[in-house]
Amino acid sequence: MTTRLDPSISALPLPSPDEVPEGVRRLWEKSREVFGFVPNVFVAQAYNGEQFQAWWSYFNLLVNKEGYLTNAERELLAVVVSGLNRCTYCAVSHGAALRHYTGDPVTADLVAVNWRQAELSHREAALAAYAEKLTLAPGEVTPEDLEPLREVGLDEHQILEAVQVVGMFNMTNRVATALAMVPNVEYHSQDRASGPPPEH
Q1: Where does the record place the Carboxymuconolactone decarboxylase-like domain (predicted)?
Q2: Could you give the count of Cα atoms lying within 13 Å of 53 in the half-sphere of its Cβ?
Q3: Which residues contact 183 (CB under 8 A, 6 or more apart)?
Q4: pTM of the full predicted structure?
Q5: At the N or C end, where does the chain have fewer CB atoms within 10 A?
């Protein structure tokens, strides 16, 4: 397998295919076969291959597999958090995913900048508001902040998953920002019209 390693996508060195674990190489190959490119995050973080695999296992389970929230709700949280943190990589890549799951490029773009200007449902707005407080003012978060989520119909499993997704993206945003990760150019055009679902 050949993978074009562009040193401008990360502030740290990039590994070559023979420098990463077999599981990472298989993930690169699968991404290239299915989506036509390897997400830059899969290369940049694989410099520490075993740590990357551990992160990806949890991230993939939490964000991409069937869960308690819908895919669109999880991506909404991802984009709200990433926009607040000014994480270019995650805001762009998960903006593409949010466009895919909602079929709505306008809302996805608005959420990345200011979710209050997007036409969100009461449930979506409650999720976004909670994500904003946990991201920007974690020291002020109390158990009472969960009540608006219950009021819009979220159960305890969904609330816990929302908290975990918000926490995951705050961590991932910081890694991506610290390494100056650049989003793949493919994300910018994905699902502006019909197209394949994004991988992130």
Answers
A1: 51-132
A2: 11
A3: 40, 88, 89, 92, 93
A4: 0.90
A5: N
CA distance 158 to 155: 5
17 three-class SS: helix
**Residue 107 CB partners (closer than 8 Å, separation 6+):** 98, 118, 119, 120
Model confidence pLDDT, tens digit, residues 90-143: 999 999 999 999 999 999 999 999 999 999 999 999 999 999 999 999 999 999
Burial profile 126-146: b = 16 or more Cβ within 10 angstroms, e = fewer: bbbbbbbebbeeeeeeeeeeb
- How many CB atoms neighbour CB 162 within 10 A? 24
Task: Note the Cα 101 to chain centre separation in Å.
Answer: 13
- Calpha distance 96→193 (Å, rounded): 11
CB contact set of 195 (below 8 Å; sequence gap of 6+) = 189
The token duo for 183 is: 């989003």
- Secondary structure letter of residue 52 according to DSSP: H
